[in-house]
Amino acid sequence: MGETLQSAASFTVEPLDRTFGAIIRDIDLRGLDDAAFDDLYQNWLTYGLLIFPGQNLSKPEQMAFARRFGDLIEELKAVEISNVKPDGSLRDAPDDDMMKIIRGNMHWHQDSTYMPVQAKGAVFSAHVVPKRQGDTAFADMRDAYDALDEATKERISSLSAYHSLEYSQRAVGEETKKENSEYIGYGMNVADVPLRPLVKTHPETGRKALAVGRHAYGIPGLPEADSEELIAALNRFAVADERRIYQHRWTAGDVVLWDNRCLMHKACEWDFSEPRIMLHSRIAGDPESEGAQPQ
């Protein structure tokens, strides 16, 4: 996106060679004053994804940083996403519900679109990483929308889709148990499956973004086959250009912050015989801008 820039708040902004994203250097996330945070927030809105190498935040420090961007979702204030059990052993059972969620997250998605209010964003940090692989990939849905031809933009401008975690897990063969499970159950058995437009207008920047991902299905007004075909085509198009894809190779201590209102993401494969421990803090969306459509 451009050359390295010096922020007014004295941290360094190094844009990625993509349509989005920047590495932020010369910063300590534990002690940002208001001016530095305001500058950081504006960079977040601009780039969508901010990467902070070597921060090594504790759980309380990560939650404190994430809370500056908004309230945290109660169930996901600081949850470990990991193949490591509490006793230190690795998960290896094929029907382990936590591993089913991890494998499901290896498909492109946006967080909490299956809930009545989708997430605003998230802070994610690496605590234990495998020797190879285990990356997280991100996709710029603003650029994806901009790149659509005018006929497609017109076609999808008034269309919406339902979003369901139960549906998306079942679709990839990773259906989780509903009872007696280690998985906390967040997102399962939502009473009223939310309906969301295929085009989302960012509430703070006004930019339009394509809004699909693995949780989307069942466009009202279209036959099931046509709905599936359209959503699949939009998902493929969104990640077809490497300029709008960034895959982050983790180093323990790294922190990333992404804007869930305009990016998709997915976990990448790794050797499950190696431990991977990540800490996720999910920022709650504003019900006015992130709420589902009336049905």
Index terms:
eight-stranded mixed β-sheet, 8 helices, 16 strands, alpha+beta, 295 residues, Double-stranded beta-helix, three-stranded antiparallel β-sheet
Estimate what percentage of residues fall within beta strands: 15-25%
Helix content: 10-25%
The ordered string of helix (H) and strand (E) elements is EEEHEHEHEEHHEHEEEEHEEEEH
Number of strands: 16
| CATH architecture descriptor name | 4-Layer Sandwich
Radius of gyration: 19 Å
Alpha-beta content class: alpha+beta
What is the H level of CATH, i.e. the homologous superfamily? Clavaminate synthase-like
Q: What is the overall shape?
A: globular
Could you describe the largest sheet, including whether it forms a barrel?
8 strands, mixed
**Do you know the CATH topology?**
Double-stranded beta-helix
Structure description:
The chain is α+β, with helices and mostly antiparallel strands and about 300 residues long. It has one domain: 4-Layer Sandwich (Double-stranded beta-helix). Helix content is about 25%, strand content about 25%. The strands form four sheets. The protein has an eight-stranded mixed sheet, sandwiched between helices. Strands 13-7-15 form a three-stranded antiparallel sheet. The protein has a three-stranded antiparallel sheet with strand order 9-8-12. α1 links the parallel β3 and β4. The mean pLDDT is about 95.
Write a compact overview of the structure shown.
The protein contains eight helices and 16 strands. The protein has 295 residues and is of the alpha+beta class. The chain has a single domain (5-287), classed as Clavaminate synthase-like (Double-stranded beta-helix), CATH 3.60.130.
